[in-house]
Amino acid sequence: MFTAIIWGLVQGLTEFLPVSSSAHLILVPALLDLEEPDLATTAVLHLGTLVALLWYYRRELIGMVQAPRSPHNRRMWMLLIVGTIPAAIIGLTLRDPIEIIFSEPWIVAVSLVITGLILVAAHRLRPGDRTVDDGTVGDALVVGMAQAIALIPGISRSGMTMTAGLAQGMTRQESARLTFMLGIPAIAGAALLETLEVLDRGDFGLELLVGTVVAGISGYFAVSIFVKLIGRHGLLSYAIYCVAFGTAAYFLL
Fold first, then answer.
1. Of the candidates 50, 168, 219, 220, which lies 20 to 30 Å from 56 by C-alpha distance?
2. What is the pTM of this model?
């Protein structure tokens, strides 16, 4: 049970920060000499953070369902659909190689350092003034490709998509908003697919349920705080953390 709670906290606190939750679910257990969650378990934990996202953006999501033809909602639907396609195609095609990477903590540590270096570059980008209402198909494809790259464990999904949004001239807050909205179909697809397999194997027990609930609660607080702070503080602190933690993990493991 203790291990499941640790998994849930790590997943919830790191899923929405640009520090790669997948890296932490691999490196933290390795450093603490705890059992490491497999890819299916990790995906199930994402159900908790999915619920956190759905609840945090519930008003916007309800509006998108109730009035899908309004200009704002049509633009958001387009961004989400087009932006999800690259990760969906690459994820289904490269599922087995990704599973292999999950078994190599040193690769994950190096990927986390790479994430940090990319965040340094993103921090130096001057935020634009574009919003999601200015989003184009090209913007969606760029952000979607960034999300697809983040399928590699250790490469932060939120970090890559925020960087792509900033590179397209969006404000920090709007980049974060698009990142998290785009995360809903991405997380849902992977989590639901793996959850069905876990249920089929009969492995969804009390411990995994507790871990998922903990991930949801901690994830909600994490996304709430991050959205409030990103506009003022940028990404540099997360970049430093990724480089420091990734480097330490590489030499300690």
1. 168
2. 0.87
pLDDT-derived band at 83, boundaries 50, 70, 90: very high
Contact (CB, 8 A) for 130 and 79: no
User: 209 is written with which tokens?
Assistant: 């349920």
Cβ count within 10 A of residue 215:
32
Torsion of CA 141, 184, 150, 135, to 10 degrees: 30
Q: Which tokens belong to 105?
A: 């903590």
pLDDT (tens digit per residue) in 170-216: 999 999 999 999 989 988 877 776 666 666 665 666 777 788 899 99
- CA neighbor of 82 nearest in space, from 142, 140, 42, 33: 140
